[in-house]
Design a protein that fits this description.
By secondary structure, the protein is mainly beta. It has one domain: Maltoporin, Chain A. The chain is 4% helix and 67% strand. The protein contains 2 helices and 20 strands. It has a 20-stranded antiparallel β-barrel. A hairpin with a 4-residue loop joins strand 18 and strand 19 (395-408). Mean pLDDT is 91; it is low at 1-11 and 24-30. It comes from Marinobacter excellens HL-55. Residues 1-24 form the signal peptide. InterPro entries: BBP2_2 (IPR018759). Keywords: Signal.
Length: 429
């Protein structure tokens, strides 16, 4: 694993974040939605390294600031949401370092129907999906994307969308592969009715890696969008071809691709969703950001055939309690190797008001992962109980306890961990 001594943000990431914050702050806050929260929490764990033996206990203290910003609709729009913090380990089990989880999306209409888009996503991700989620196994992934988009209206029923995008992906660990991506898309849409839109799209992307490898992807799809009184559906289906080149060698693959996003308000208090995607892509893409339950193995080959699907409900009850249930499954087939990873999981969270100022919750999660190359299985279970006390309008006190267990066909990947956390948050504005 990487030595994380002095590990910071990827190259240029700090400058990007500062620029994005400046962009978001360019719109007067009197006409925007802004919320800033500062917090500090302390977490004791009896197995900080999540090791199968020789467990080491430690105390981690995190100081952080969380911001949410959304400008009012206008010629320029900005949406920023994220957390930036600093982690300190009392007994130095891991190096002290910053951590971040930040999303920014913005666009400006430079001329009639001509837009410029900009986005940035920053995450801490695992390097090796077989290993436990600890600071030693993490790297910081930053995906920056920008480019023009033109909406050409042919008539009231037909329009063409032309877009070009430059995308840069960087990792904080030097052994991970960075990339630059160039994407061009042409799409035609037809309005069949006020609630039904369909069309065709074609895209081409070239990804250049700092190792000298190149990946080209060509995709053609049929698209659909439909709205009912309580249901929204959007999706696409098509074909894609991917070609990977490195030096004098090349490899290509093709297949069926598509996506679906379905949401339904079953009752005024019950929402249901279904979303999924099948893509031919590479491990530096933002698929793991768009589908948080999906995880790339950064130790495996570049090109990946991915399939992911998730469904769940959000039920709100009359006593101020709520139930969230999410079920998901995904598969990653690494095209230049024999590895295939299959994952399925379940997350359940129930929360309710315990008093006028106190809210409690109980959450559990189950994960099953299979690795095709050596036919090994991992199972992971987590249980968490927490409460939040609203001491004042702006100050909240937090308390949580939890247990995690991982069993595996490989004994060295197993562990048990118990932890407890206390903290406070203060809403600055």
């Amino acid at each position: 694993m990487a030595n994380r001594q002095g590990a910071g943000m990827p190259r240029n990431t700090a400058l990007l974040i500062a620029s994005l914050l400046a962009y978001a702050g360019a719109v007067p806050t009197t006409v925007a939605q802004t919320e800033i929260t500062g917090g500090i929490d302390t977490r004791f764990t009896d197995n900080a390294r999540k090791a199968s033996g020789g467990e080491t206990s430690d105390v981690e203290t995190r100081t952080y600031i969380r911001a949410d910003y959304q400008s009012d609709p206008g010629l320029c729009n900005a949406d920023l949401s994220g957390t930036l913090g600093y982690s300190h380990w009392l007994d130095s089990t891991f190096d002290n370092e910053t951590y971040a989880d930040i999303d920014f999306n913005g666009n400006c209409e430079l001329a009639n129907q001509f837009y410029w888009d900009l986005s940035n996503n920053l995450r801490d991700v695992n390097q090796d999906s077989r290993q436990s989620d600890t600071p030693e196994n993490r790297t910081r992934k930053n995906v920056f994307s920008t480019g023009p988009r033109y909406l050409w209206r042919l008539n009231d029923l037909n329009w063409i969308n032309l877009s070009a995008r430059y995308e840069n992906t960087e990792f904080s660990e030097p052994e991970e592969t960075d990339s630059e991506r160039y994407v061009g898309t042409v799409a035609w849409d037809h309005l069949f009715s006020q609630t039904l839109t369909g069309g065709l799209s074609a895209s081409y992307s070239r990804t250049e890696f700092d190792t000298g490898a190149e990946v080209d992807v060509q995709t053609a799809r049929v698209t659909l969008s439909k709205t009912w009184a309580t249901t929204q559906l959007s999706g696409a289906i098509g074909v894609s071809e991917i070609e990977t080149r490195f030096g004098t060698t090349s490899q290509s693959s093709d297949g069926l691709v598509g996506e679906i996003d379905l949401t339904r308000n079953v009752t005024p208090s019950l929402d249901w969703y279904l979303r999924g995607s099948r893509e031919l892509t590479d491990r530096t893409s933002n698929l793991d950001i768009r589908f948080g339950e999906f995880e790339f193995n950064l130790q495996d080959s570049i090109s990946v055939e991915t399939t992911t699907v998730a469904t769940g409900i959000n039920q709100r009850f009359s006593d101020r309690s709520s139930l969230n249930l999410d079920v998901y499954a995904n598969q990653a087939d690494y095209l230049e190797s024999v590895e295939r990873e299959e994952k399925a999981g379940l997350n359940v969270r129930y929360s309710r008001g315990l008093s006028e100022r106190t809210t409690g919750y109980l959450a559990t999660g189950l994960d099953y992962v299979r690795y095709e190359s050596d036919a090994t299985d991992d199972q992971q279970m987590g249980l968490e109980l927490g409460a939040e006390y609203q001491a004042s309008r702006d100050l909240s006190l937090l308390g949580r306890v939890g247990h995690q267990r991982k069993t595996s066909d490989v004994a060295s990947r197993e562990y048990d961990e118990n932890w407890i956390l206390v903290g406070l948050e203060y809403r600055i504005r």
